[in-house]
Amino acid sequence: MIETRCGLLCSECSFRENCAGCIATGGHPFHGECPVALCCQSKGHTHCGECPQLPCARLTQYSCDPVHGDTPHGARIEQCRKWAAQ
What we know:
The protein is an all-alpha fold.
């Protein structure tokens, strides 16, 4: 099941009680406007795994951010690849 545009798993997110996610909010989850979600939506993709530029610099920055990024780094990029393969 596709949970987000960027590959983040909402079901595993600590903010899920206060956030409907980027798909349901049109790219405006709990933290405000999400440039990754808005980029994906503007290209007509369901998630970043559908984009031929995967992984782009923007998604890589989000995924590998030292403070707010994925554990392990790149996890959401790999999730997008899994969704694309389905």
